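Hey, I was hoping to borrow your eyes for a little while. For a while now I've been wondering how a particular protein folds. The fold is given in discrete form, as structure tokens running alongside the sequence. Could you read through the record and tell me how the tokens relate to the sequence? Take your time with it, there's no hurry, and the full record follows here:
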Amino acid sequence: MRKILSSFSVIFLMSINTFGQNIPVDPSVRIGTLSNGMKYYIKKNALPEKKVEFRLAINAGSILEDENQRGLAHFMEHMNFNGTKNFPDNKLVDFLQSIGVKFGQHLNAYTSFDETVYMLPVPLDKPGNLDAGLKVMEDWAFNATLSDEHINKERGVVLEELRLGLGPDKRMRDKYFPKLLYKSKYTERLPIGKKEVLENFKPDLIRQFHQDWYRPDLMALVVVGDINVDEIEKKIKDNFSKYKNPSKPKERKSFDLPNHKESLVAIETDPDATGSGVQFIIKDSETYQPDVTIQQYDQSLVEGLVNIMLNSRLAELVNSTKPPFTSGSVYHGGTYARSKEAFQGSASTKDGDQLNALKVLLEEVERAKRFGFTQSELNRAKDQMLSSYEWAYNNKDKYESSELVDGYIGNFLRQDPMPGITWGYEHLKQVLPTVELSQTNEIIKKRVKDDSRVIIMTGPKKDNIKMPTEAMVLNTFDAVKMADLKPYEEKAKAESLIKPFKSEAKIAKTETDAKLGTTTWILSNGAKVTFKKTDFKDDEIIFSAVSLGGVSVIPDADYNKTKFAFDALLEAGLAGLSKTDLIHYLAGKQVSATPYIGGATEGVSGVSSKKDLKTAMELMYACFTDLNYNPDAFNAYKAKKSAMLANVDSDPQYYFSNEYSKFINQKNPRFTSLEPTEKDWTSTDYKKAYDIYKEKFANAGNFHFYFVGNIDETQLKNEVLQYIASLPATGKSSTFKDTGYRPIEGGYIKVYKKGKEPKSLVTISYSGETPYNEKEAFAISALGEVATIKILEKLREDESGIYGGGASGSFMKIPYSAYDFTINFPCGPENADRLTKSALAELQKLIDKGPEQKDLDKYKEGEYNEYNTSLKDNGFWLQGIAQNQLDGSDKYDILNYPDKVKALTVKDLQDVAKKYLTKEKNVATLMPEDGWEKVKKDETKKAGALAH
């Protein structure tokens, strides 16, 4: 009784102390509003060094378009890259590339129903870059030139983007959206717009949209990076205050997602659908209001706990030996409209099983509603939430600027709270202990109601699949209310993963490398451990264990029996614990460890917080010594995978990739298809895969273990001696081998026909075996980046024929040395031949004259920019120091990279272009099935017609 009263007192006192108090705002962020209504957020953040992230958020999107402007909010986003006051024509992208900003990869934007956001990261390694970045943001906000010429030229690019979205998903979406977005304007304002509008709109219409909505009182500028806050604030005030709002500004209306008494059911199928699924949406009765008070914030935390517990139950079902669906989740959160939240659930299913999946989702919600949650579930959810907050808090000073900006954009656009992680973590530690089952149980009771429901089922249209009727769907809701359900039961949480044992292992030898900052221990069992202590994150350790061999050493017959089973092995769990048991055991811990068997290596990779390093070592030890054997778990995995892939061949792009891969690898008996077919599963031997795994991981002496992060050497040494040094070892060594199989030689044109939409995809490739040359390997990689610049300039900007695409070049060193250079781009079928010739013409220029120095300089600046950022990334270092084990490369390559980039010349790139891009090539094209009779099905011929 005293405990109950004490608990009540805490809640009562907290409610008095926080009632009516507003959620604080992170004091490290400078927030202000200019006289014209434009808002700004500025924060100094030194990671990465000498870099700043700019964002321009505009509280306007496609929902504000007039009927004759449909698609112009998104079109306007495009136009800001095609000519502004200070960067006329296409000079903006050209300039940004010259300072190391890559188009698409770094420089980007998006448009949605209610907002448009522009993204620009700028390196500050050169004087003037900061001011240039601010000038770009100013131009994006107010100074688009919007010339007739550029508008008309960009139509083709936007129409190509629209083309990419065509297919079965869009056809089904067009049918169910009127019910999902019932009686709302959102139904009629998809951001991509209408084809007829995009093709025919008068330029004045987009200028009007820009004038109406690109105005200061609807904008916020976000600046986060290695900056002086006072200086930035002054520059913003000086440069952005002069802009005026229209004298008669249009009202920025908000649009609702109306409620409705009836339940709306959409059951949509398409012959080309690649998967089956179901979702339900139960809209809240009241209009959504963002959290303002601490009391509201606390209520959201409790809702978060409910989400965790419900989805934990669903995960158990998915991981069971008889899963009702391949994936499933429920949550309470936002919809397409800012003004409406909803209780929502979804599941991916096998074909024809959507109704049962809906029943299972609803039953789990009903079970929680009737009987509530258990104390152990609540404790586990609290541990999980607290652990996530704690990890974020521990790394609070090491977040990259790009990870922070979205929070400030959300505050401007949706009034999301932004108290900062320090307040959030400290507050959570106070609130979580006071949350009781009665609070979470009360929330779940309110989530399911009988009105404002929308249920959507989608899947392939097949003669042997009978979809449910609308009445059957609605009856499911009533049946679940009357179902004979039992309270949720769970097994007791495992107290340990590994039985205690005493290790007598030792470190036989220690080596250090001052240049790399690494220490290597050779252990008494022959295993090697290399670690590098960093301060890039205050609470992160990433690790991997690598041994050479992989599937390359498996005989052909055994490989074909096991290649699709390796990914399923961990489904059985570890150390006698099922996958669900493991998830429960690891709740509240920031740790993961995943074993793998790859092409030339096998190993374990993972990540851990400092305090959970022991658990990470236990997991790794169990991966080596105690993988469970469970055919039922494998069969469940096989069933889920089969359901996911049952219709994958209906996807034209997958079909194209798969068929072309079969053609290229026709002489390789180890290649069947990219994903397993029913025939592949029939011949798959789970026991054989398990035995191969056990054999590979039976010899830890053949493994090299790598750790990078904020490491306490004493702690690491203790755990290494206990777990890694005590792993069994045989004294044998192994390496990968060359199977001897090679792709076919170049010189073919392949045309594949799939899909009903007018969509094509072109792949041009040069490849072959060649002696490895480090200088050429570096040059051909750079050539791919430079070729991408030229292909986008020609095919996108000049010819308006593609939305995206590019080239890549690489050398493979193991298991044999070979080169590869590939160009890919999607386009309209009517343009495929013309654009292929244009792309090849651009390559011919690189062969004849070499690249322009300015384009090579763009590549170099981009590489310097990425390298300088990567130097403070633990994963970058882990990969860099492990590379030597795999291919024998210079272990100091990670340090020498900038010098190699600097040394590259135009002649180096021209030389590899002459050497490798004058050889025979393969050209593969995807064409639609109908309406292109001039193309013979699966046409194969020598590629003389497309010779240089």
Notes: The mean pLDDT is 94.
